[in-house]
Design goal:
The chain is 33% helix and 19% strand. With 399 residues, the chain is α+β, with helices and mostly antiparallel strands. The protein has two domains: 164 residues, Creatinase/prolidase N-terminal domain (Creatine Amidinohydrolase, Chain A, domain 1, 3-Layer(aba) Sandwich); 229 residues, Creatine Amidinohydrolase, CATH 3.90.230. Strands 4-3-2-1-5-6 form a six-stranded mixed β-sheet, sandwiched between helices. A five-stranded antiparallel β-sheet has the order 11-10-12-15-16, sandwiched between helices. A four-stranded mixed β-sheet has the order 7-8-9-17, covered by helices on one side. Strand 10 and strand 11 form a beta hairpin.
């Protein structure tokens, strides 16, 4: 098949070349011979796709080796070189694909995976190698590289690449607006989907099918339902066997990616009939809290200020504060820097909020009586307030 026919929504050659140019300039400035990145899934595997437009999937690691001069090399788990992944016609900017049958469940095969990269680096006589995000690189891979190459200096370039990824081009924002439309369409369809007597997993399944048909590539969803006066939380799929009853309410978080693999996320509450007063009051607080923080989402802002001001506001109303991610940027990664978190002695976000970022704000409030969750994406502008991307009204959806 033709390239354009096989890939549903490829990124343009011009956009890939823009990214490669940023990397090559950084390698030159830092006097690096090569850099590598490794990912193993789509939702939190954006480095590999950002460099190649090909995602790593199914928890099988893919490593990109990006030299200062010349095209990239991929190291990928594959049972036979006769069926390389990705196929050669899809590997733009890639000169070779090194395949071997390795898997994280087969501990000893880490030697095979790392061995391919070690041979590559030795052949090129590298002296200084950059790596991206140690949290994404398997310990077996990194330990073997450093052991086999004791005279090679390894330099962390995560800060630089994270900033490249966080600032979206016009083409990237076009794709992000498309996934937002997919999610808004799901909210419009919700009253026709959710019926008493359905299991929570059945609701999720029907919505996933709808969004797949609209172009979604990966389908992450969380939901919870409960009787009025009880907290519903948000269950993972393993706990989604509850049957929805007349009078129930629920929360639903849609985190599907769209055509091209870009993420946004959206959350709302739904209710059969009129919600109880406790839910109305809590929802109103969440909506006001989201707007308060959206007003702070401006170019140059420290993300910690946003969390601090939200927690100050919400605690004044007697509700729970955010100790988790209150918000974050998004792109090929579901969660991307900068992250909006309270200060923590083990890690502090240093990247400021900047114009060109696609940011998610998601107040989550719960107590023994109720759970509410609102989530929308915003585009940070150069001057002035952010642009809200989701069009679904900030209201409880009445079924």
């Amino acid at each position: 098949m033709k390239f354009a026919d096989r890939i549903r929504r490829p990124i343009s050659d011009a956009e890939l070349k823009r990214r490669w140019s940023l990397i090559r300039n950084m390698l030159k400035e830092k006097d690096l011979d090569c850099l590598f990145a490794q990912n193993s899934n789509m939702a939190l595997g954006g480095y590999v796709r950002w460099l190649t437009d090909v995602p790593a999937e199914y928890n099988l690691p893919m490593t990109v080796l990006f030299p200062a001069e010349g095209e990239m090399t991929l190291v990928r788990s594959c049972p036979t070189p006769l069926a390389p992944y990705p196929p050669l016609w899809a590997a733009r900017g890639v000169s070779e694909i090194l395949n071997a049958p390795f898997s994280p469940t087969l501990n000893y095969t880490a030697d095979i995976e790392a061995g391919l990269a070690i041979d590559y680096l030795k052949k090129r006589n590298v002296k200084r190698v950059g790596f991206i995000n140690l949290a994404m690189i398997s310990s077996g891979f990194m330990v073997r590289l450093k052991t086999a190459l004791p005279n090679v200096e390894f330099i962390d370039v995560t800060e630089e690449v994270d900033l490249f990824k966080a600032l979206k081009s016009d083409e990237e924002m076009e794709l992000i607006r498309e996934v937002v439309k997919v999610q808004d369409a799901a909210w419009s369809a919700l009253p026709a989907v959710v019926k008493p007597g359905m299991k929570e997993y059945q609701i999720r399944s029907e919505l996933m099918e709808l969004m797949m048909n609209l172009g979604s590539e990966e389908h992450l969803m969380f939901m919870g339902t409960a009787n009025p006066g009880k907290a519903c939380g948000m269950a993972m799929f393993n706990f989604a066997n509850r049957t929805v009853q007349p009078g129930d309410y629920g929360t639903l978080l849609i985190e599907v990616s769209g055509p091209g693999g870009y993420y946004a996320e959206s959350a709302r509450n739904f209710c059969f009939g009129e919600p109880v007063k406790a839910m109305i009051d809590m929802w109103d607080a969440a909506v006001k809290g989201q707007q308060l923080t959206a007003d702070l989402l401006v170019n140059g802002q420290d993300s910690r200020v946003i969390v601090r001001e939200y927690n100050k506001f919400i605690s004044s109303l007697g509700y729970c504060t955010e100790g988790r991610l209150y918000g974050h940027s998004q792109g090929y990664d579901l969660i991307e820097r900068p992250a909006f978190m309270a200060d923590d002695e083990w890690g502090v976000e240093t990247m400021p909020i900047l114009a060109g970022m696609n940011c998610s704000l998601h107040p989550f409030i719960t107590n023994n009586e109720c759970t509410v969750y609102i989530n929308d994406n915003y585009y940070v502008t150069q001057d002035g307030p952010p642009i809200k991307l989701h069009k679904t009204p900030p209201e409880i959806i009445i079924l």
